[in-house]
Amino acid sequence: MTTLNPASNPWHDDATVIGLVGIAHASSHFSQLLLPLMFPVFISTFGLSYSELGFLMTVFFAVSGIGQAAAGFVVDRLGARPVLFVSLLVMAAGCMAVSVANSYAGLMLGAALLGLGNCALHPVDFTILNQKVSAPRLGYAFSAHGLTGNLGWALAPVFMVGLSAAFDWRMAYVGAALLFVGIFALLFWQREHLHAEVLLHKQTVSEGSTLDFLRIPVVWWCFSFFLLSTMTLSVVQSFSVSILQAMHQVTFEAATLTLTAYMLCAAAGMFLGGFVAARWPSHSDKVVATCMATGALFMALCGSGLLGGNLTMVILAATGLAIGVGGPSRDMMIRKATPKGATGRVYGIVYSGLDTGSAISPLIFGMLMDHGWYGATLLGAAFVLLLSVLLALGVGRRIVHA
To answer: Looking at the whole model, is its pTM more than 0.70?
Structure first.
């Protein structure tokens, strides 16, 4: 079960496609941090609790998850490129909605628009990569894809905090909207490199009709893996700054820098993981399981309270490195579970697990944060990540027997 892609392309052509798709992916990850980074500001401006703030992210990821499952079908039927262009403009509109918000309802509208814009990026990206990039370079393409996503996460704190300090938080969201418009202009200019064929009408999914791929157990194992593994990432994104301040009394700037370091380490891990995925493509499930288990151990150490503030920040950043190394192998694992002609649909369903986990996580761990159980929040995130190890190994066994 695999998708069609060219056997050989000039390196320049593959690099161009990978770069443009990487920029789009970075914008998606950038959008995911736009709200959590301003949580302290929203608390002082609107008087919100952690549970209310967590619900903003639930709105974002609920819209994104539902939309992502549907977007996979839209991508398969209409093509990836037009969906990509619309997504970027919707994310810009979401930023503008937050910039003028005067109430919690206004923030929720912005969250919903940002989630709607974010929803199609994974089906779009992987449809283009699987069609346009040469088969021998797909491991490196998935590595670059994950790396640019993490760079988008790493850019968000610097961009938003910097503009907020120079102007105010509302102008920071206006700046983010202009950034999305600029990315749209760049990709529209280079649109010929992003053209992907609509394969749904040219070939038949080997398992049967349009929806029959939903009966394949490994698809739902992949979905569940994404749900659990992403719950841990959501804790880091939404609450790590507040946890570090509460547990170790570090400054807001130092805690924010730790979040950036986590994302940069994850990006470095993605880079290394590309070589790992290319070297051991047949053992992708075992690579993923090993990386997630290591990340769970590091996260548990951070939540134990046994480490001082400085060492906790270092270990938390190293957690990003461990998880990042497994990223390209994770994408290879999903690719092996994908039937022909169903790339958009399978990636849409599977990656909606990412959004589902991100929607559930703030509700659960936000309640722990409201009770002041900061260490328990990290320990819970570590336990959930450890459960994803079992799912990764289960995916591997089901691919072998498919």
So the answer is: yes
Identity at 146, one-letter amino acid code: G
Residues near 166 by beta carbon (within 8 Å), at least 6 away in sequence:
none
Looking at residue 373, the DSSP 8-state letter turns out to be -
Long-range Cβ pairs for the range 164-173 (8 Å, 24+): 164/38, 164/41, 169/38, 169/41, 169/45, 170/99, 170/100, 171/99, 172/38, 173/34, 173/95, 173/96, 173/98, 173/99, 173/110
323 near 381, Cβ under 8 Å?
no
User: How far out from the chain centre does Cα 274 lie?
Assistant: 17
Q: pLDDT (tens digit, 9 = 90+) per residue, 18-34?
A: 889 999 999 999 998 89
Residue 387 has a pLDDT of 92
Reported as type and span, the H/E element at residue 351 is helix 343-370
Lookup result for tokens 């060219």: 6
In the chain, what is the greatest distance between 2 CA atoms, to the nearest angstrom?
A: 59
CA atoms of 41 and 47, how far apart (whole Å): 9
- Phi, psi (deg, nearest 5) at residue 392: -60, -45
- Nearest one of 92, 91, 112, 106 to 48, comparing CA atoms: 106
* pLDDT tens digits, one per residue of 279-305: 887 788 889 899 999 999 999 999 998
Q: Which of 74, 85, 76, 78 is nearest to 190 (CA)?
A: 85
- The rounded distance, in Å, linking the Cα atoms of 288 and 336 is 14
In whole angstroms, what is the distance from residue 13 CA to residue 19 CA?
A: 10
Domains detected in the chain: 11-194+212-400 (1.20.1250.20)
- pLDDT, residue 276, reads 86
- Are residues 121 and 74 in contact, defined by beta-carbon separation less than 8 angstroms? no
Return the closest-CA partner of residue 385 out of 269, 297, 273, 302: 297
At 345 the pLDDT is 66
3-state DSSP of 214-263: HHCHHHHHHHHHHHHHHHHHHHHHHHHHHHHHHHHCCCHHHHHHHHHHHH
Contacts of 3 (CB under 8 A, 6+ apart): 130, 131, 335, 338, 340, 341, 343
pLDDT in tens, 221-247: 888 888 888 888 889 888 888 899 889
Q: CA-to-CA distance for 254 and 30, rounded, in angstroms?
A: 20
